[in-house]
Amino acid sequence: MTATSETEAQAPSGSRRPWYATVAPRVFWPSAVIILAFVIVTVLVPDTMTEVIGDIQETVIGTFSWYYMLIVSLFVVFSLWIGLSHYGDIKLGPDEEEPEFGLKSWFAMLFAAGMGIGLVFWGVAEPLNHYAGIPNRATGITQDEEGAQGAIVQTFLHWGLHPWAIYVVVGVAIAYAIHRKKRPVSIRYALESLIGKRVHGWLGDVIDIAAIVGTLFGVATSLGLGVIQIGAGLDFLDVVSDPGNLTYVVLIGAITALAIFSVVTGVKRGIKWLSNINMGLAAALLLVVLVLGPTLFIFKDLVQSIGDYLQNLLQMSFNTTAYEGADGNEWQGWWTTFYWGWWISWAPFVGVFIARISRGRTVREFVAGVLLVPTAVTMLWFTVFGGTALYRELFGEGGLVGTDETGAATVDTEASLFGMLDGLPAGTLLSVGALILIVLFFVTSSDSGSLVVDMLASGGDPEPPRWSRVFWGLLEGAVAVALLLAGGLSALQTVAILIALPFSIVMLGMCVAIWRDFRAERKAMLRAQRKLQREQLTEHVTNTLIDDGLVEPNGKGGKGGEKVPVS
């Protein structure tokens, strides 16, 4: 970023400048051109893009799945280390500052942004897919009681410590830069201690461009999942029959409009308000399913699954299915490699957003709030929803796992949530509530993503201009439409994996930069403490000598007449 663009970014939001001067041109325009070019090409030649995306998926998964497994596990270790070490006392902001948001609103906003639609989409679908062996049984999960337990535990891996550790790395790095070091809201400044003055040049621009493109595609992946599930819910409720691309485009357009309205109102109004409503509705749906479902089984399953998760965490974290051949690659592309890529592609967006709302918290509070609390909530969520579905398959009437013409197990991934809810009392009403929840998650993910992209493209302005908020909101919706046209769920998964590859290198650099920054701050803190201790010791000795009459307050000498210095 140039000095000029930095100055513009920090200018008061109300200053009168031409619209084109309110953005960082070396970041905004390349990002916009890259994304618009993808959308145009995909809409014009969707079949060609489908083929290209398929080839990319096979190459990336076959070549880099081991890399994703390794670095994401590294991020977990790194997050725990900075939270539990003496670095945890470092304040993300001035030492005397209190947190900007209360715990309730803070948790609601980071949780809604961090998991979003995916939590509702996969809450029932993922455990059922693992149980049914989709796409294959490379992990050894079987379709029986033991396999049902394994399905929940495997889901815990994908939604537990690992994704939130990814957010911790990016969030802490950015929060320290913008709140402690007073830098603009930008990914590049998280690497300042690593790349030095180059943060202001082309390298810094490339980092922010990669973050913007990754965020747009990562959020668009979630929006695509959301409209697919909304369409399935409308079909299940007989509102729309056999929804197709036209239905999805209309849904994306309508909900993107709501998201734009929210993001234009800002964090403290629209986004905070929607996030609180969102979490309230999610908690209500969770509680109702817990009470109406097999309550005792759910509690037993939760305790048992947490134990299995902790017992097998190390093995699952490094399981690359190396000895499973083509089945192993296919499984990784469907699940773990897809998830790690998805979370990394979300990391710029979620990291900037939770950094923006975490001013005044210590590193230890940040790690505990972002890593541990959401992990516990997601475990409860998947046990309640996934456990209820598996209980129905094992001990009830079944029907959520079917078979195709070859006898292979099948799961209606998009409609499985509504199928599970339909088996409970007031199932139709619960399905309507779930649809509303999905829409709200859609809106909170989209508006938060638009705000973050806008801040990055505006050179770090925490209150970017409204016109650009609208622009990026529309572009998010356009990318979601393009990905759906290019292959639906498979295209969404592939792009998430691909986009994560370059940004994962940035994240490794962030780990090094965080360590350097925290070590330097710790040394400065210790020097200040030692200086204070010396001053306090000198004062104590002086006061003792004065009290004992060995020296006079003016330092002229004590009872023996000798000259005794007081300092």
Can you characterise this structure?
One of its GO terms (molecular function) is transmembrane transporter activity. This is Choline/carnitine/betaine transport. It is found in: Cell membrane. InterPro entries: BCCT_transptr. The protein is an all-alpha fold and 567 residues long. It has one domain: Amino acid/polyamine transporter I. It is built from 19 helices and two strands. A two-stranded antiparallel sheet has the order 1-2. Mean pLDDT is 87; it is low at 1-15.
Low-confidence stretches: 1-15
Helical content stands at over 70%
Count of alpha/pi helices: 19
- How far apart are the termini? 50 Å
Tell me the fraction of residues in β-strands, as a range: under 5%
**Overall spatial form:** globular
Q: Please, what is the average pLDDT? A: 87
Total domains, how many? 1
* CATH architecture descriptor: Up-down Bundle
What's the count of strands?
2
The CATH top-level class label: Mainly Alpha
CATH topology name: Amino acid/polyamine transporter I
**What's the alpha carbon Rg, rounded to whole Å?**
27 Å
H/E element string? HHHHHHHHHHHHHHHEEHHHH
User: Strands of the biggest beta sheet: in what spatial order?
Assistant: 1-2
Largest sheet data: 2 strands, antiparallel
Structural class by sheet pairing and helices = mainly alpha
Give a short summary of the structure.
With 567 residues, this protein is mainly α.
Strand and helix layout:
Elements: H1 3-9, H2 25-44, H3 46-84, H4 103-114, H5 117-132, H6 145-159, H7 161-180, H8 192-195, H9 202-236, H10 245-265, H11 267-292, H12 295-317, H13 325-334, H14 336-356, H15 363-395, E1 401-403, E2 409-411, H16 416-422, H17 427-457, H18 466-485, H19 488-547
Antiparallel strand pairs: 1-2
Family: Belongs to the BCCT transporter (TC 2.A.15) family.
Subcellular location: Cell membrane
Protein name: Choline/carnitine/betaine transport
